[in-house]
Amino acid sequence: MDSTLLLPCLLLALVSQSGLLASAAVYNLEDPYPPENNDSRVPLYFSLIQSFSGQYISSYSLPGLQLALDLINEDETLLPGYSLHFVITDTPCNKIDALDTFHRQVFEEPTKIGIIGSGCSVSTEPTASISHYYNLVQVREERGGEGGKSRNVHEYDWSVEHVLQEV
User: Fold this and answer.
1) Start and end of every Receptor ligand binding region domain (predicted)?
2) Which domains does the chain have, with CATH numbers?
């Protein structure tokens, strides 16, 4: 992954873990801030795989992620000539839905540069295990019950805690 994209990935992951998170709510699954027609910057897209329904709700991180995107896009010194956006998908903490969503996101426009996974390991583990085949880095929330493990066994799967240790 290009090092210029690492900072925005980290910022997105870190802000989603901050105290700026709202309670779970129903969100419109369209990009809330699509690129403006008069914006000359090249849009870059993340696939945001979250659980808006099912046994684990991770949509609470959406306001923090949107704030991170806004802060990155407003600072013209970060990623000059580019703007960041995300495509939101719902995987109700289900392995089959997560894999189906992942493959649709990989092969459908717009092209994605990375994945932001949810804290639901049932959904996150399968997508992390195949993301390297598509040269996509997946940043995810830290899952509970890992006993202090900060890095998954998958090469392209990074947790927020692991990223903080590396920085």
Assistant:
1) 63-139
2) 3-25+38-166 (3.40.50.2300)
